[in-house]
Amino acid sequence: MTYHPVPYRPARLPAAEATSNVAELRQRMEQRRSVRMFSPDPVPEDAVLDAIAVASTAPSGAHQQPWTFVLVSDPEVRRTIREAAEAEEQISYDGRLGDEWLEALRPLGTDAVKPHLTDAPYLIVVFQQRFTLDSGGGVHKNYYVDESVGIAVGMLLTALQVAGLAALTHTPSPMRFLGELLGRPRNERAFAVIPVGYPADDCVVPDLRRKSLDEVLVRI
After folding, report:
1. Where would I find the H helices in the chain?
2. What is each CA distance from 24 to 17, 52, 88, 102, 120, in whole angstroms?
3. Torsion angle of alpha carbons 78, 83, 86, 91, nearest 10°?
4. Cis peptide leading into 14, omega within 30 of 0?
5. What is the pLDDT of residues 109-128, one digit of tens each?
6. Alpha-carbon distance 206 to 218, whole Å?
7. Among 3, 69, 104, 204, which one is most buried in terms of CB atoms within 10 A?
8. Is the pLDDT of residue 154 over 90?
């Protein structure tokens, strides 16, 4: 494709409205927590689909949009994913992660048991497309794939939070089993599994502190 510029003239918000909008978003996002205890109650599917659509607006290297979002609601498929993930996680917690990583995880209270994979009504399995396959079987490299998909996942989590839904970025390692279970082509590699739903009535989360703005901001 050749470069074909088109006009871009978004509305410029008044300063007060811009400040109010982002302050409201900040307040919503400060309430975001990674949830591992989900209610099985159904959630609005349209909200989940719109959140995925928001994620797909993310910037990407050379605009190659190297992502696929697999939405899993089938209970049997979720059960199969959980069984495979827990098998890998058990190996990891038995020593593959290493002592330093296990020590870093200790304040989160995690272990190899992953009920969120079957309790949450939806799983969004995000795949990154390491390369593109054309209709003739040719292979074309994609660029900045990790960065592009990471940004898209961040936007997905933001959209889900705005919708009042809870989520978790779950990354069992290795994740090759996800491509096999979900029948994904050879150019796709699993990036994250994101359970989506409402927190359980007895949900608890670790008592953690986020860094303040002063701790993460450098002014020059």
Report:
1. 15-30, 45-55, 75-91, 99-105, 116-119, 145-162, 176-181, 213-216
2. 11, 21, 40, 36, 27
3. -150
4. no
5. 888 899 999 999 999 999 99
6. 28
7. 69
8. yes
The CA-based angle 179-184-185, given to 5 degrees, is 120
Rounded CA separation 22/188 (Å) = 35
* 3-class state of residue 47 by DSSP: helix
φ/ψ of 125, rounded to 5, equals -95, 115
The pLDDT tens digits of the residues spanning 78-115 come to: 999 999 999 988 888 888 878 887 888 888 888 889 99
The more confidently predicted of residues 94 and 193 is: 193
Helix and strand counts by DSSP (H, E) for the chain:
8, 6
C-alpha–C-alpha distance, residues 111 and 16, integer Å = 46
